[in-house]
Amino acid sequence: MVSEDSISQRDKEYLVMLRNMPLEKLEEILLVVERSIKEYLDEKLTRRGEYTIIASISRSNSGVDLVVDLQLDYCITPREKCSDIVSSALSYARRRVEEYLENLSVRNT
């Protein structure tokens, strides 16, 4: 878990939103993550590329944890490029979640 001192003000605001979010909205975030990663990988990988996504979200007294395990099962590009694709897919999913949270905060103001 990341110390709250080391995160940006915007991320702190997202964390507050997530802590107070109903379970249904947290489930929607999981769908956003899964769809975003699928969308990104379907664009970047060849038709024969295969991958596994496992995502979970949990809430405790100290915060909310989103865990995404993304594995390329079959990728015909060089290993380093596959690692870059995974990293980029996760970054893309993060941006999409941030957009989702921004849209929620705009609707609630």
Tell me what you see in this structure.
The chain is built from three helices and two strands. By secondary structure, the protein is α+β, with helices and mostly antiparallel strands. The chain has one domain (4-102): MTH677-like (GMP Synthetase, Chain A, domain 3, 2-Layer Sandwich), CATH 3.30.300. It is elongated, with a radius of gyration of 15 Å. The model has no long low-confidence stretch (mean pLDDT 85).
Unreliable stretches: none
Tally of helical runs: 3
The portion of residues assigned to helices is 55-70%
Q: Which architecture does the CATH hierarchy give at level 2?
A: 2-Layer Sandwich
CATH class: Alpha Beta
Question: Any descriptors?
Answer:
109 residues, alpha+beta, GMP Synthetase, Chain A, domain 3, two-stranded antiparallel sheet, 2 strands
Chain-wise SSE layout:
Elements: H1 9-20, H2 23-44, E1 50-60, E2 63-74, H3 79-107
Antiparallel strand pairs: 1-2
Short note summarizing the structure:
With 109 residues, the chain is of the alpha+beta class.
